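Input set for joint prediction.
Command: fold jointly, output tokens.
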Amino acid sequence: MSGEHTSSAVAARVRRLEERLIGEGLVTDGELDAVLTAVLEGASPLNGARVVARAWSDAGFRERLLADANAALPEVGLSMAGGLQEQRLKVVANTAGHHNVLVCTLCSCYPVALLGPSPSWYKSEAYRSRVVREPRAVLAEFGLELPDGQEITVWDSSAESRYMVLPRRPAGTGDLTEEQLAELVTREGLIGTAAL
Amino acid sequence: MSRVNDVGGQTGFGPVVVEEDEPVFHADWEARVYALNIALVRRGVYTLDEFRDAIERMPPQAYLAASYYERWLHAIEVLTAERGDAERGGDE
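tokens >
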């Protein structure tokens, strides 16, 4: 109940702020609606999944993606320049001996254009503080038990630099089309808290 | 000097809690705050660096007590109020 009360108090605060800013001519309703439509319809893990499926299907694209992701993304109709500032993207590939996982210890930096808005746990102090100290334990809590011999790299994102994991292609998927492969890719796989 | 948001490697924040089938926004006001921030940065009312700074200079207790989008709301309120003060002070 107190939660509901708090929430409605915050909602009223937001309404007052919005009315003030519209009154001052700093934003319009139309702009706000356009921003939300763009993020809700355009930014989704389906984008990252398409990138991964292409990399699994096309060795040349995979090589270009790992060498310079910003230059390779337009090949699948995507870009890191659609947001407020262009961000450098580095795609990091999982292998049999090496696993990658993403974090932003300072706040919530995340490749939104490829993965959509981030989940709350990614932005939580618990995840941000712990995954750099004890990644193996945190991944195990997500259900991903990595063998002791497998190396883990934790990539700490920043305002200018974002990362995305290229998961290992699941066995037995040799006959699948690129569209079918994309359906196997999950958001957690792209963050590195799950294998596929 | 490290600020309250610099939590990498710290202990004491408990387990990672994952919400199943989490919606992008938990309430309409969160979506409005999200949109306000992007629209204001696009208009050049403030920069993304100023926005991050406004969150990171929150008093530690307020930062830790606030939800993610409450921090955003706080930053927008602070930055747009500071802007108004600067204008009234004849800085522009």
